C-alpha cells in the first residue's frame, strides 16, 4: 500500500500519511470574511464528520478572519491561496494549520521564498496543488494536450521549487475533472513520490453526477492504496461531500463505524412511500455512532428474507409495517409508526 509508506505530515492536531487513517476534507462556500457564517458552516461539517476544513483567502480581511474562525472550531484549518503570496503569509500569521498553493501562480522565486520561509518558521505544511485546468502551456505542448503525464510533471516541478528552498513539509494534490486521467495521474505520481497525496475529482459536478464521478474515481485510486486525505467535490451543500466521502471509505472497508442503510428498489408490490421512507431513515441514522446495517424494505412479503443480512430492518405494506432483526419478524406496527419504532431500537441498541 503506497499510503503506508508516505511521509507523515502534521496538520493541526491531525496526522496524515505513513498509514494513518485517511481523513475527510471539505471546503467552505461562505465568504471567509463573514466569521459567523463560516463558523456555522464548519460546525455543521464537523457534526457530519469533516476532519479538515479549507477556506479561501482572497483578501487581507479573509486572512485576518482566520484567527477568529480558528478559535471557534475543532478541526484543522487550511487556507486556500491563489495568485497573491501575501495572503499565504498573512494566513499563516493568523493561525492557518496548513496552506494550499500552486507555486506557479503566486509570483517569482522571491515571493515563493517568502511563503516558504514563513511556513518553515512555523512548521506549517504546504499543499502543492495542480489542476488540469491550469496546466502550463509548455507541458500541454510537450504532451500534445492535457494529460496525466503532464499533470505529474507539473506537480513534481512545483514540489522541487519548494524543496530547493530546503523545505519538505509537503502534501501534493493533482486534480482533473476527467476521471480516468485523474486515476492515471495518481498511479504515476504514487510511484514517483513519498509525499502524502490529497485525492479528489475536481469540478465533479452536481450531487448526482459529482457523486458518481467521485465514487468511480476515488474508488479506483483508494483501492490501489493511494491517497491520504480525500474530498468529494460537489456543487451544493458541502455537508453532502462529507456524507459521500464517509460512504466511499466505508464501502472500500477503509473506515469502520456509521450505520449503512440498504433499501430495495421499488416494484409493483410496493404499497408505501419507500423512497421517502428510505431517505428519512438515512437522514435519521446519521446521529447514531453504530457500526451496523439497517434495511428498509417496501414489501411485507419478501421484506424479511431480503433483510436477513441486515442487523435490523423495517418493511412496509398497506397500512402495516414490520420490524425485522436478522431476518426474523419481531413485531408488527402501524405503517405510520415504522420510523419511530426504528429510532427507538437504535437509541437502545446494545453493542
What does this entry look like structurally?
By secondary structure, this protein is α/β, with parallel strands linked by helices. The protein has helices at residues 35-48, 60-72, 85-93, 109-122, 137-142, 148-163, 179-190, 207-223, 238-251, 274-284, 303-306, 338-347, and strands at residues 9-11, 14-16, 23-27, 52-56, 77-80, 98-101, 126-131, 170-175, 197-199, 229-230, 260-263, 293-297, 312-316, 320-325, 328-334. Helices cover 40% and strands 19% of the residues. The strands form three sheets. The chain has an eight-stranded parallel β-barrel, surrounded by five helices. The protein has a five-stranded mixed sheet with strand order 11-12-13-14-15. It has a two-stranded antiparallel sheet with strand order 1-2. α3 (85-93) packs parallel to α4 (109-122). The chain is elongated. 44% of the residues are buried. The model has no long low-confidence stretch (mean pLDDT 90).
Low-confidence stretches: none
Shape type: elongated
Give average pLDDT, whole number.
Answer: 90
Order of helices and strands: EEEHEHEHEHEHHEHEHEHEHEHEEEH
Beta-strand content estimate: 15-25%
- From the structure provided, what is the oligomeric state, counting identical versus distinct chains? single chain
Structural class assignment: alpha/beta
Radius of gyration, rounded? 23 Å
Largest sheet: 8 strands, parallel, barrel
User: How are the strands of the largest sheet arranged?
Assistant: 3-4-5-6-7-8-9-10
Helix share, percent: 25-40%
Separation of the first and last Cα atoms:
32 Å
Instruction: Please give the number of β-strands.
Output: 15
Amino acid at each position: 500500500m503506497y499510503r503506508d509508506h508516505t511521509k507523515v505530515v502534521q496538520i493541526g492536531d491531525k496526522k496524515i500519511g505513513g498509514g494513518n487513517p485517511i481523513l475527510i476534507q471539505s471546503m467552505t462556500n461562505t465568504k471567509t470574511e463573514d466569521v459567523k457564517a463560516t463558523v456555522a458552516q464548519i460546525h455543521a461539517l464537523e457534526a457530519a464528520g469533516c476532519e479538515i476544513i479549507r477556506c479561501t483567502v482572497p483578501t487581507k480581511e479573509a486572512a485576518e478572519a482566520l484567527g477568529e474562525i480558528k478559535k471557534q472550531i475543532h478541526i484543522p484549518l487550511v487556507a486556500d491561496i491563489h495568485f497573491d503570496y501575501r495572503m499565504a503569509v498573512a494566513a499563516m500569521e493568523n493561525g492557518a494549520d496548513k496552506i494550499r498553493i500552486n507555486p506557479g501562480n503566486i509570483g517569482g522565486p522571491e515571493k515563493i521564498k517568502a511563503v516558504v520561509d514563513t511556513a518553515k518558521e512555523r512548521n506549517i505544511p504546504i499543499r502543492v496543488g495542480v489542476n488540469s485546468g491550469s496546466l502550463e502551456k509548455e507541458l500541454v505542448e510537450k504532451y500534445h494536450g492535457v494529460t496525466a503525464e503532464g499533470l505529474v510533471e507539473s506537480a513534481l516541478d512545483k514540489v522541487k521549487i519548494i524543496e530547493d528552498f530546503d523545505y519538505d513539509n509537503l502534501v501534493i494534490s493533482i486534480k482533473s475533472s476527467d476521471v480516468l486521467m485523474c486515476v492515471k495521474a495518481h498511479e504515476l505520481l504514487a510511484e514517483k513520490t513519498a509525499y502524502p497525496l490529497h485525492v479528489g475529482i475536481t469540478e465533479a459536478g452536481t450531487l448526482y453526477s459529482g457523486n458518481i464521478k467521485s465514487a468511480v474515481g476515488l474508488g479506483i485510486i483508494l483501492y490501489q492504496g493511494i491517497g491520504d486525505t480525500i474530498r468529494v467535490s460537489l456543487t451544493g451543500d458541502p455537508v453532502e461531500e462529507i456524507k459521500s466521502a464517509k460512504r466511499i471509505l466505508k464501502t472500500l472497508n477503509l473506515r469502520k463505524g456509521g450505520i449503512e442503510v440498504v433499501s430495495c428498489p421499488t416494484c409493483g408490490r410496493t404499497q408505501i412511500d419507500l423512497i421517502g421512507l428510505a431517505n428519512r431513515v438515512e437522514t435519521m441514522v446519521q446521529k447514531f455512532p453504530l457500526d451496523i446495517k439497517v434495511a428498509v424494505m417496501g414489501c411485507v412479503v419478501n421484506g424479511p428474507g431480503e433483510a436477513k443480512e441486515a442487523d435490523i430492518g423495517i418493511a412496509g405494506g398497506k397500512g402495516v409495517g414490520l420490524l425485522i432483526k436478522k431476518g426474523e419478524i419481531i413485531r408488527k406496527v402501524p405503517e405510520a409508526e415504522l420510523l419511530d419504532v426504528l429510532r427507538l431500537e437504535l437509541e437502545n441498541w446494545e453493542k
